[in-house]
């Protein structure tokens, strides 16, 4: 079992930036960020696989950057040029066995470990 703890959420004005972090209890290569707004389905934001391939959902391409530290214990999401439609609960996810790869990790069903989430609110 891998425990995941997100941090870094908050409120920011449109156009601003936030950096989310996810601390994993053990080294994990295949991880992702998802978000869910009230009344909407959980959406894949960004993911990274075992070879370091990164994938992004269309709404965040060019604005968000996913990264891992060298120990593979921390997953980050740098969010720039934030928009009100980015407002959501953001979740960190992990697939410790790295059963999949590439853009398939933008599907929430590919992950079996989840954090509790951190709220991001972008106001205009």
Q: Describe the largest sheet.
A: 7 strands, mixed
Poorly predicted tracts of residues:
none
Instruction: Give Rg in angstroms.
Output: 13 Å
Helix-strand topology string: EEEEEEEEEEE
In percent terms, what proportion of residues is strand? over 45%
Q: Percentage of helical residues?
A: under 10%
Based on Cα principal axes, name the global outline: globular
Give the CA-CA distance, first to last residue: 40 Å
- Tally of DSSP helical segments: 0
Number of strands: 11
Structural class: mainly beta
> Averaging pLDDT over every residue, what do you get?
97
Q: Which keywords apply here?
A:
4-stranded antiparallel sheet; 45% strand; 124 residues; mainly beta
Q: What layout of secondary structure does this protein have?
A:
Blueprint (H helix, E strand, L loop, with lengths): L3 E4 L2 E4 L4 E7 L6 E6 L6 E6 L5 E3 L7 E5 L5 E6 L8 E7 L18 E2 L3 E6 L1
Parallel strand pairs: 2-11
Antiparallel strand pairs: 1-3, 3-8, 4-5, 4-9, 5-6, 7-8, 9-10, 9-11
In short:
The protein is mostly beta strands and 124 residues long. The protein is built from no helices and 11 strands. 0% of the residues lie in helices and 45% in strands.
């Amino acid at each position: 079992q891998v425990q995941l703890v997100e941090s870094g959420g908050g409120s920011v004005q449109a156009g601003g930036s936030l950096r989310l972090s996810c601390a994993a209890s053990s080294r994990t290569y295949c991880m992702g960020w998802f978000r869910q707004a009230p009344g909407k389905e959980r959406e894949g934001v960004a993911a990274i696989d075992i070879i370091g391939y990164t994938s992004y959902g269309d709404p965040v391409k060019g604005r968000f950057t996913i990264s891992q530290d060298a120990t593979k214990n921390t997953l980050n999401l740098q969010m720039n040029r934030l928009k009100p439609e980015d407002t959501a609960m953001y979740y960190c996810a992990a697939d410790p066995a790295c059963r999949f790869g590439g853009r398939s990790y933008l599907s929430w069903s590919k992950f079996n470990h989840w954090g509790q989430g951190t709220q991001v609110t972008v106001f205009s």
